[in-house]
Amino acid sequence: MQFGIFTVGDVTTDPTTGRTPTEAERIQAMVTIARHAEEVGLDVFATGEHHNPPFVPSSPTTMLGYIAAKTERLLLSTSTTLITTNDPVKIAEDYAMLQHLADGRVDLMMGRGNTGPVYPWFGQDIRNGISLAIENYALLHRLWREDVVSWEGKFRTPLQSFTSTPRPLDGVPPFVWHGSIRSPEIAEQAAYYGDGFFHNNIFWPLEHTQQMVALYRRRFEHYGHGSADQAIVGLGGQVFMRANSQDAKREFRPYFDNAPVYGHGPSMEDFTAQTPLTVGSPQEVVDRYATMREHVGDYQRQLFLMDHAGLPLKTVLEQLDLLGGEVVPVLRKELAIGRPAHVPDAPTHASLVAKAGGAHDATVYAAADDVTGASPEVATVTR
Amino acid sequence: MTGGATNRRTLAVVSAGLRQPSSTRLLADRLTEATVNALGQKGLDVDVHVIELRELAHPLTDALLTGFSSGPLREAIDTVTRADGVVAVTPIFSGSYNGMFKNFVDVLEQGALAGTPVLLGATAGTARHSLALEHELRPLFSYLRSVVVPTGVFAATDDFGAVEGRAGSDDTAPLVVRVDRAGRELADLVAARTPREVHDPFASPTSFEDLLAGR
User: Fold this and answer.
1) Exposed site from A233, A273, B114, B145, fewest CB < 10 Å?
2) What PANTHER family does this protein map onto (chain B) (predicted)?
């Protein structure tokens, strides 16, 4: 079971001080938060991808590449990578490059973004959202698995004998999750490929999450990737903790009441009852999240949103201390109890390499060097 | 879902009245009674579900802000979506349906009322607002692709005091006559349809082969 954090990368005014961080401060804070996630023993850091204020992370692989250099173990991921508006060719290249630099500590989550206007900014049309997600991913999937791709589709120029470089590290593409809140088509897509399915349920009632995950599991089995309980499931989460439950509620309430998305709407009490948001002691968080598997089955990845709504960096780091120190170690133990042996862990680079029968260099050498016209000697010994 | 009993129909009654007691609710009840009676004459039993939007005013605002609905609002949405027929009644505010009525329409899933027979009613202080029913409510339900019965029933305060069976001073048919006519029209449409089956995308998703082929 993997535990980690995911960030939206929002620049939000702290409602208790009225202070809004600069982009520079927010970007540095994200890096500090990622590094601290590793220090407190978490497994995963995932960043969102957004192309409009108040969000800063428009260039995830740049940020993740930097964090990769500053960390040792942390798995780097996205929440989400826009499979709709990014050119799948560029995604194939960027994330293969990141894979090499991070020594395989990379996976990614495909998503469709949270705002309509992002489509025309990148020359696309929101009405094609699902179709773009389907077609672009089908191409991306091939670009990472076939050295030479000829391809024609509806949404981008055809490819003739195209090779995406660098080839995936050790010949093994990064593991892919598909994130969707409400589209059964995306659960179907994840099931078809035998990829992971992440339900970002932080703003949604659990019944809905249950429905989406059940569909994904059923279809995962239908497509022959294993039994339904072997499908790879991830969930979102959102918590705020203090040693004393009442302190947590008092401190978080102004952030809740003014938060983007749900602020000025339901009361914190209603929202915590309806969604996975838990505000209280570390034990209350443990109790709540230990029951998630009763609704969605034994799952593989739990990500928490910790750094939003204008919470100051210092507070976020304290939250990570509590999460890594008091919550995750207990959850690891509790969730291991009764977990059937045939339920797999989330795939990692190492497990995927082992499954592929070992690492092999996947370099594709040019037939002839453009500058000298000569073929490199190694060209005959690889592949 | 009616569990296979083909002589049962469900009727959802949506009332956007704000006061209690509410003349909007009164009109809704009379339209419901007329519809149930007319369906009874056709040998059909009716399950009536009344949705008082007033009780859902806070959840409606929350749903608009958070993008999801749960609890009683979720139940109300499901009830209306699954109904074989709908009676929808609102007071007229500033020349149109009130905001709460529209909020409820706005949180329904796309296509939730497509093809559903709907009887529209409206109330206001005076008959000067009566055409709001035709110019505001009817187009809204055209957008929703509902099948709206020809008779919409408008009731001004006066109408509730009119003597039954006698035409009003402006030659309008009395309220009771219009209510009965509208109820019969809705009953005809509801009776003519097979009980509603709601497509569940989670039970039968589009297969990936079809998605890949752009179907």
Assistant:
1) B114
2) FMN REDUCTASE (NADPH)
Residue of A nearest to B58 (CA): A266
Nearest to residue A97, comparing CAs of A61, A60, A71, A146?
A: A61
Nearest to A215 among B66, B71, B205 (CB): B205
CB A274 within 8 A of CB B70: yes
Q: What is the pLDDT of residues B107-125, one digit of tens each?
A: 999 999 999 999 999 999 9
Residue B114: partners with Cβ closer than 8 Å, 6 or more residues away:
B144, B145, B146
- Give the domain A2-380 fold: TIM Barrel (3.20.20)
- pTM (2 decimals)? 0.88
Token digits for A77? 């991921």
Q: How many CA atoms, within 13 angstroms, populate the side-chain half-sphere of residue A312?
A: 10
Chain A CA closest to residue B109: A182
Task: Say how far apart CA A215 and CA A205 lie, in whole Å.
Answer: 16
Q: What is the set of domains in chain B, with CATH numbers?
A: 8-212 (3.40.50.360)
Report CB contact under 8 Å: A185, B205: yes
A235 beta partners: A199, A302
B66/A266 touch (CB, cutoff 8 Å), yes or no: yes
A69-85 tens-digit pLDDT: 999 999 999 999 999 99
